[in-house]
Request: fold
Amino acid sequence: MPTRRPRSRPKHPRPRPRAQGAATSPGLRALQARLARVTAQVKALRQRHVRELAAARRAADQRLAALMRELSALRHHEARGQALTRLLAERDTALAQQTRRIAELEAALLRTPTHLG
Reply:
């Protein structure tokens, strides 16, 4: 006589049917209302955070722009100062050459005899 194998249990138990009154119970409605409030609060906080973050980024961008303008102005003044220094050095060199030339001419005049005696 062939032996029968015992039947195995189903792998997934069947879900139990819900009670009809549970969907409208006051506790469930209170939890759903609370979940809706908390979800709205989270949404509001996220929007506020986005606005605050955008404001902080704008403020940082404005500070950065001001620093860049100041840096640009300082570089301009530095370049202007270097140009003036270079001009003064050239002027000093030219004045020194003119001073030497005047001294040479005065010495030559003093060496040459004049008709006055």
In short: The mean pLDDT is 88. The chain has one helix and no strands.
